[in-house]
């Protein structure tokens, strides 16, 4: 094409200006592709770290006007009693397990409690309540046991975090061992509660952070008891009650059954005959009703973690689950791993957002500099442009000529920037960016970051280079089109 030949000739004739503009574009593209590839690698590593070790691919949870997450926020959140339960849990779990793309699920409770040992305060721990066998199947490589391991049978067991253990031993001055019994104090809907738990092991999260290191794993029923998650926290089992004629709930018992009647009062004291055995279990009478009111609800769960067979199906599966919940009028939501990761994922996404803002500012500055350089170039070529117009070239030809010049320069410089950025990423990948900081280990998905070229950043960088060329050519082209051919030829 004639226009391309003219564009290349003009670029070669103005080598200094071409080099300046090309260098700016190449640096901008190199910065874009390198920075976004590193951030994409961090996000991918963080996703692998969290989804493989803590959150799964998707999380079903209840809804609340207050914010909450997998981790109770600390002593102020008590035992996590404000975290909503998943309604109709068995229906939800059964429906999700039948989906072909689902590999496994893990019901989970979240809470917190203070610890005491032999009536001595021994610190605080956040708690995840689960069935230990299900947790081991879902996250087989997430824990590093320093002593003990998963309990072989159900029971009131707790796996204590090493960080929590160290804090407890420091506070009490006494060592903790496997088999020791500790007292947990939690707060639920019906007030404060104390429960005993036996230490079955001590562990560290292989990819922990300051917040995760405070989490201990506990038998789900112990945490339910701490949180007061009975079949009905107010003491009436609605499911087993019947409605009276007036539409009110009639409990399965009467006042006399609960409290007795006048005849139940002891009028005279009957002495215990010598040698007679006292049946202490019968003193309180029939406790079956009371036991039913305080029975723990086995279907009370805060979260359902879901692992998929293929992570590429996360968006489609998330949409399918949410549709199922909405169709069934179940007041629950499904979120991806980043919701479960909480502040760490939010920080990583905020870093990428800030980085892209910086990139946008750099691109605007680059466009302004390139535009000014092209304006100077057009001004110096007024006689040439006037001659072209005088011999019959229309305004469209001149506009295309300048556009092709800037596009050619932008694309070539952009490709150079991509090449430099790719080589730089290859070098950094080979060397690695090591960090002993636990927070960066979570971000990196390991102790060393090895960034790889992101196809998304490559495409966006090329598009940015083309956009630079298009935008930069608009103002210089408008100046060139305002030049009258007669006046331009007078400057020859």
By DSSP (H or I, 4+ residues per run), the number of helices equals: 16
**Counted beta strands:** 14
Unreliable stretches covering 5 or more consecutive residues: 73-79, 234-253
Question: What is the typical, i.e. mean, pLDDT?
Answer: 79
* Estimated share of beta-strand residues: 15-25%
Rg (CA only): 35 Å
Explain what this protein looks like in three dimensions:
The protein has 492 residues and is of the alpha+beta class. It has two domains: 2-51 and 345-490, no CATH class; 64-235 and 296-330, no CATH class. 49% of the residues lie in helices and 18% in strands. It has helices at residues 2-13, 15-55, 89-97, 132-138, 162-172, 220-227, 255-259, 288-293, 314-327, 337-341, 343-380, 382-390, 395-431, 438-444, 455-481, 485-490, and strands at residues 58-62, 102-117, 120-130, 143-148, 157-161, 181-188, 191-205, 215-219, 242-243, 249-250, 303-308, 332-336, 433-434, 448-449. It has a six-stranded mixed β-barrel, surrounded by four helices. Strands 9-10 form a two-stranded antiparallel ribbon. It is elongated and about 125 Å long. The chain starts with a helix and ends with a helix.
């Amino acid at each position: 094409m004639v226009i391309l030949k003219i564009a290349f000739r003009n670029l070669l004739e103005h080598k200094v200006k071409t080099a300046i503009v090309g260098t700016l574009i190449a640096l901008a593209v190199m910065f874009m592709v390198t920075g976004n590839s590193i951030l994409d690698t961090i996000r991918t590593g963080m996703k692998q770290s969290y989804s493989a070790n803590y959150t799964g691919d998707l999380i079903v949870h209840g809804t609340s006007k207050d914010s909450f997450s997998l981790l109770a926020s600390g002593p102020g959140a008590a035992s996590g009693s404000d975290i909503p339960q998943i309604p109709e849990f068995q229906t939800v779990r059964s429906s999700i397990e039948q989906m072909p793309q689902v590999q496994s699920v893990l019901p989970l409770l979240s809470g917190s409690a203070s610890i005491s040992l032999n009536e001595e305060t021994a610190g605080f721990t956040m708690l995840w309540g689960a069935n230990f066998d299900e947790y081991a199947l879902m996250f087989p490589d997430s824990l590093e046991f320093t002593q003990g391991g998963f309990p072989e049978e159900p029971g009131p067991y707790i796996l204590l975090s090493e960080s929590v253990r160290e804090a407890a031993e420091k506070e009490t001055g006494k060592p903790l061992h496997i088999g020791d019994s500790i007292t947990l104090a939690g707060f639920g809907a019906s007030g404060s509660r104390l429960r005993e738990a036996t230490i079955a092991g001590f562990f560290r999260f292989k990819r922990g952070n300051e917040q995760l290191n405070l989490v201990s794993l506990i038998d789900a029923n112990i945490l339910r008891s701490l949180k007061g998650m009975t079949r009905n926290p107010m003491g009436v089992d609605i499911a087993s009650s019947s409605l009276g004629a007036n539409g009110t709930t009639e409990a399965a018992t009467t006042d006399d059954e609960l409290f007795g009647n006048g005849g139940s009062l002891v009028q005279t004291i009957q002495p215990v005959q010598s040698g007679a055995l006292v049946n202490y279990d019968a003193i309180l009478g029939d406790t079956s009703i009371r036991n039913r009111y305080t029975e723990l609800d086995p279907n009370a769960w805060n979260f359902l973690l879901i692992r998929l067979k293929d992570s590429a199906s996360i968006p489609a599966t998330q949409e399918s689950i949410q549709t199922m919940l909405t169709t069934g009028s179940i007041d629950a939501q499904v979120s991806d791993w980043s919701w479960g990761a909480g502040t760490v994922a939010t920080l990583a996404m905020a870093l990428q957002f800030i980085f892209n803002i910086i990139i946008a500012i750099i691109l605007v500055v680059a466009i302004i500099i390139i535009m000014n350089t092209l304006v100077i170039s057009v001004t110096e070529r007024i006689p040439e442009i006037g001659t072209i117009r005088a011999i019959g070239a229309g305004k469209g030809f001149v506009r295309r000529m300048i556009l092709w010049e800037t596009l050619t320069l932008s694309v070539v410089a952009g490709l150079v920037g991509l090449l430099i950025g790719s080589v730089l990423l290859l070098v950094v990948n080979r060397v690695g960016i090591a960090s002993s900081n636990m927070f960066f280990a979570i971000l990196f998905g390991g102790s060393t970051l090895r960034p790889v070229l992101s196809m998304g950043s490559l495409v966006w960088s090329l598009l940015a280079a083309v956009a630079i060329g298009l935008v930069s050519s608009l103002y210089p082209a408008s100046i060139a089109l305002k030049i009258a051919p007669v006046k331009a030829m007078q400057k020859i």
